[in-house]
Amino acid sequence: MASQHDTTPSPRLRLRPFAAMRYNAELVGDIGEVTSPPYDMMDRPMIDALLNDHPQNIVRLVLPRLVSDPVQSTNPYARAAKLLRRWRRQRVLLTDAEPALYVYEYGDAALAVCGVVGALELRRRDAGVVLPHEDVIPEIVGDRLAMMAASRANLEPILLVYDGGGSTNDVLVKARERAPLIDVSAQDGTWHRLWAVDDPADIRAVRLALAPHQALIADGHHRHASYLQLRRRHRGVGDGEGPWDRGLAMLIDQSQYPLQLSAIHRSVSELSLDEVAAGNVAGFEVGPREPVEGALPRLPSGPGEMVVATDSAMVSVRRSAPRNPAVSDVELLHGPLLHAWSVSEDRLGYHHTVQQTIRCAHQDAGVAVLMHPSSVTEVMQVARAGKLMPRKSTSFGPKPRTGVVMRSLDDEV
Fold first, then answer.
1. Strand partners, 16
2. For the purposes of burial, counting CB atoms within 10 Å of the CB of 385, is it exposed (0-12), middle (13-18) or buried (19 or more)?
3. What is the pLDDT of residue 3?
4. 69, CA 20 to 30 Å: which among 129, 157, 169, 382?
5. CA distance linking residue 355 with residue 353, whole number of Å
């Protein structure tokens, strides 16, 4: 169905206004205390701290299977959906009166980014509008789908980047001249501000600016896959057009606000450093065993090197052949190296910090594999070629905080 804001005959990237569901500061107090990092950025101690610090933290809705239930009598997703409905009745969560696009600015002492949040119209992958670059883990897609289907809500925006040449900048600047709807600081030292864009001319300008572009999924491959599955599920039972045809998304113009690209490290269970050091893998050189000096092992010095480590020792694994930039280090790890070490993918853990990786490797009697990040150019080349990197290959940041802006499917027709 065409929107009143459509003016292009065949727009590619389409973002619709929606009425945001947001925390009510009058009831919860400091909104920074009820938000959280993205679900896959948190470990168990962080989750427990957020749950203990505030009884209405968003983690209770986003990760219900990790929230203790002394009765254990209900499905965790159904339990979270019931809690969401109660919070809405109690006005812990409120929905804005009118649909809008939202300008979301966030950052820390070192970096600030700004983009537009809206309801992204979903298209098939082969349409080439939203480009994934990583494979997904079916179990995680199933978990996110169960959460979305039970709650009938998008509680976390996916993060998309595109090269718009600053075409939305006038709208971003105009919005930020007003007082924000939300202006909070979170416990991790980040700050977050949100403005509504409800002027039809500004909405039209944003939609025209986005229309001709492709967008790369920077964060949220599993959520995007869940959006598409939820849409297929509704269509499969005969539902027509509806709110399941869209998903909550934040779009950032990479030419204005370039995100940082970090590596995601691996822990490998039940593998010794001696086994790695003794391996002879064609195309790779394994350096001598070195002690870890300091609290943590060093990171790889550049592309083409991985550092395999425990909490006390490490070895360097380097490509011995000339580096082919079209083949990432992560692809080589998941291909010839894991094969040579007789390691299956179900023995891998994925971690955003060296400390988490080393700790999990130690707990699982294994090793940490520390990676060097891919470049944005490499990632875009992979995506535009229709290829997928191994799951959890990249980490774009900084990421939006969960709980700042949400979307309920029940608020849309």
1. 119
2. exposed
3. 40
4. 157
5. 5
| Model pLDDT, residue 71 | 58
Of 96, 100, 127, give the one whose Cα is nearest residue 116: 100
Q: Report the C-alpha gap between 331 and 391 in whole angstroms.
A: 10
Q: Are 186 and 5 in contact (CB under 8 A)?
A: no
pLDDT digits (tens, 9 = 90+) for 284-315: 999 999 999 888 999 999 999 999 999 999 99
pLDDT at residue 8 above 60? no
| CB-CB neighbours of 136 under 10 Å | 18
What is d(CA 368, CA 360) in angstroms, rounded to the nearest whole number? 8
Q: What is the DSSP string of 262-283?
A: EE-EEEETT--HHHHHH---TT
Predicted confidence band of residue 74 (pLDDT cuts 50, 70, 90): confident
pLDDT in tens, 233-268: 999 999 999 999 999 999 999 999 999 899 999 999
Residues near 157 by beta carbon (within 8 Å), at least 6 away in sequence: 117, 220, 248, 249, 250, 400, 405
- 409, 413, 314, 406: which is closest to 369 by C-alpha? 314
Q: For the packed helices 76-89 and 138-151, what is the interaxial angle rounded to 10 degrees?
A: 40
pLDDT at 5 over 70: no
Q: Which amino acid is at 260?
A: Q
Asked whether 43 and 356 are in contact (CB, 8 A), the reply is: yes
Element spanning 236, H or E: helix 221-236
